[in-house]
Amino acid sequence: NVCTLFPSAGYVILRQNASKEATCVLMTYGRYGSGHGHPDKLHISLYSHGRIVAPDPGSLGYDNPEHLTWANQTIAHNTVTVDEVSQYPQGMSDSIWAGERRGKPSVGKLIFFHPGRVLKAARATCDNAYEGVILDRTIALIGPLLVDVYRVRSADEHQYDWAFHVDGQLIEASLKLEEVPGVLSPSRGYSHIIDVRRGRMNGHSCDLTFSVSEGDVMRMTILPVPGGELILGNGLKTREERMPVVIVRARGEDADFVAAIWVGPRSAPPFRVERLEGMPEGVIGLMIENPDGERYYLVSAGKLRRIEVGGEEVEGQLALFREEDGGIEAVEVVR
Q1: Which positions ≥6 away from 286 have C-beta within 8 Å?
Q2: Span 21-26, mean pLDDT?
């Protein structure tokens, strides 16, 4: 298979296929790398058509103040920030060398790695990036389509910001957004996000289209979050350049962020992605129709349990079903 797991480093890479143009996604869950690492548990980077579409911020240079105020902040990464504070051990520290306390590591846990034939998937969790908060991310590749299911759980109320940085230019948004002057927030990292536009999702999915190269676009469908807000802005790419960021904000004890993302020619028809209604509590189901009209159903259960779609029943944490000849059959199951 073409997927790769680096268990010691805490990296997992899912690849559509071996082609140079294939869609690939990397997720990190491993140990914090002291001052050379970032507070970025469960960050993902997206590659497609030979380029990085959703990058990691990298380093802006240790002598650059923005290395601390941007690159070393969780909001600069494609993961979830809680209460506008970076993950442990960076937190509110003024040092780029913030380190773990003795006996309290900053590390996630791989739950599964599934390099299947049709479904390539991985799931990781982290319960020590934020006190009393569990981060739980499942990523799945179905052909060129990336499905991201990010669950956040806590016994206390928080503000959760799911962020996704895109190396491209926004050309279309289905949700009406209002321009807001100034920076997104005075909080560290957030103070670098300008050109802010925001709007309530009000139970509706949002479709975004970004131009990422000549002739190619990245399309994103974001499913609604109860009481959720969509925020668009421009963060930093380099010292001189800006890069768009998509933020979905939710408030409460728990939040489920779900997005479907794909890259392809602007002229190509898009995928259609909708939430499956009637799923049990804690179970997230999606209907996925590809450009050829083939229909799949992806169900993320969050734990090992029975999963049923259209009369077809399996047991697993994640399952992919296909509509075939008027019926539904299970394609792959992750237990």
Answers
A1: 147, 223, 258, 260, 273, 274, 275, 276, 297, 298, 299
A2: 98
